[in-house]
Amino acid sequence: MTVSRSGVRRRRSTLTVAVTGAAGPLGSALVDRLTQDPNAPKVVGLDTTKRPSTRGPWRIADIRDPALASRLTGVDTLVHLATDRSPGTPQEDRRAVNVRGTEVLLDAAVAAGVRRVVILTSAMVYGADPSHPVPLDEDAPVISELPDGLVGDWVGMERAALRRAAAGALEVTVVRPASLVGTVTDALLPGLFEAVRLLGIRDARCHWQFCHVDDLLDALAAAALGAVSGAVTVGCEGWLTRAEVEAIAGMRSVVLPAAVATATAERLHRIGALNSPASEIQYLINPWVVGSQRLRATGWQPRWTNDAVLREHLRALGDRAGRGLVVLDRKDATRAAAGAAAGAGATLAVIGSLALARARRRR
């Protein structure tokens, strides 16, 4: 028996684990993580193209191919990472990959006799609500509706997987990271730091929590090896306050009433300047902190702190930190809003920049 870097004790495995999206940054990192240990299972990479430096078996496959089951022969566990986490992709195209593609993949997994599927979504599926405890229980209910944006994709993916689990066709593990930072980022909190000011919401209970890709990879590896199951959250220990974030980033906040921020987001969304729905402002108002309880029960501990993750993110941004959305007049503000990346973090960054521009014009 060996102990992995995540702290999960595991035996020599005879499992075959397949990873979709294995040529992408997250999928390739997971393949490397699983194959570097001699006691790890056989790992099969699945993607539409082969990564040049790949070691081990590889199968060319498209998750939307109805004949996909033939590419899953002999697979025991399937880790699904062939999704689009870019908020800038048109919603219809992105949902076709994320939701419909996941449904095709799950049906192929059932047909091929795959026993367990690991799905990556986000802790954002819990929503952000003033009644949320801190941290959330992993079995807390998720959003009941299917909203626009990436959150709706993730809810749809989970529903598709859990329907098949309820029918006894598959075992399903859903991994839900906090706001993701590292070689892969999500659209929420990390995007705020390219604005000239952070956006703060008056009287908000926002708790800033991050998840570094390194810790996510540990969680995905644990899920792939069956060390955790069910709903699995992953994030840094605790959270940061807005004041702590401002001190680390060396940035000040534009503080707006929630109604003003939401109305601005609705206008930008309505004119097509931003794809992200205005409802995602709630993630900057109310808490959605996760506790990684099931991972911790295996002995896992996060390698990264929120403070260290944020500093690393700011270093990676370089000159873009605090400069990406600086606007000074109405015309420039409109162009900046229309050209901005369309995610929740970009939405909030644009709103903050527009508010700052208006304040400067009034002086």
CATH top level class name of the domain at 2-186 and 209-238 and 288-308: Alpha Beta
Strand content: 5-15%
Global geometry:
globular
Per DSSP, the total helix count is 10
Question: What is the typical, i.e. mean, pLDDT?
Answer: 85
Structural class: alpha/beta
Task: Please compute the radius of gyration using only Cα atoms.
Answer: 21 Å
Reported for the largest beta sheet, the result is: 7 strands, parallel
What is the terminal separation in angstroms?
A: 68 Å
In brief, what are we looking at here?
The protein has 363 residues and is α/β, with parallel strands linked by helices. 36% of the residues lie in helices and 15% in strands.
Explain the overall architecture.
The chain is an alpha/beta fold. The chain has a domain at 2-186 and 209-238 and 288-308: NAD(P)-binding Rossmann-like Domain (Rossmann fold), CATH 3.40.50.720. The protein is 36% helix and 15% strand. It is built from ten helices and 13 strands. It has helices at 25-35, 91-112, 149-166, 213-224, 242-249, 258-270, 293-297, 306-317, 330-339, 344-362; strands spanning 2-3, 9-10, 16-20, 42-47, 58-60, 77-80, 116-120, 171-177, 179-181, 198-201, 210-212, 230-234, 253-256. The strands form four sheets. The protein has a seven-stranded parallel beta sheet, sandwiched between helices. A two-stranded antiparallel sheet has the order 1-2. Helix 3 (149-166) links the parallel strand 7 (116-120) and strand 8 (171-177). Helix 2 packs parallel to helix 3. The protein is globular and about 55 Å long.
